[in-house]
Prior knowledge:
By secondary structure, the protein is an all-alpha fold. The protein has one domain. It has 9 helices and no strands. Helix 3 runs antiparallel to helix 4 (about 65-80), helix 4 (about 65-80) runs antiparallel to helix 5 (about 85-105) and helix 5 (about 85-105) packs antiparallel against helix 6. The longest helix has 20 residues, at about 10-30. The mean pLDDT is about 95.
Amino acid sequence: MEASIKSRYSNEVLDRIFSYFMRMVLHLQNSGIEKLPLENNFEEPLKSFMDIAVGLIIDGQPPEIASLILDAEYDAILSGSAVSVKTAMSLRLIKELSWHIHYDKDYYGYLLSTVNLWGNEVFKYASRTFYPNPSEEIKERYQIHDLIKYMPKEAFRLDDY
Length: 161
């Protein structure tokens, strides 16, 4: 592949989606689903798809139901009109992140594995707010201490979620 994955696929919409789900993880960690859903100011069709995905988390739907609904909604959006790779990837990312956050015992692993698609805004949010907030166990498991050890403590925005 000529261009790097990041330069070819990373974009401002994906950055907003990653940041949204990082914020969601912090809310889930600190107060459960009671502070969900978060404000959703995405453009259509992402807005509606995000509402459905987060609604399935809040409702506690089993994976079999969530999979059917998200797949059907995804297919309906794609069959309804021609969408760009950017939009299709954004929809897919919403589905995958919502799925892993809801059903994986350790959803940090999946979220952190997507780092090759993160843009500068996601890295800034992650280093200031997301990385410093998880439990010590998570920080050790994913070597997050190494990612934030050179950040000045005054740069952290621990409550920015």
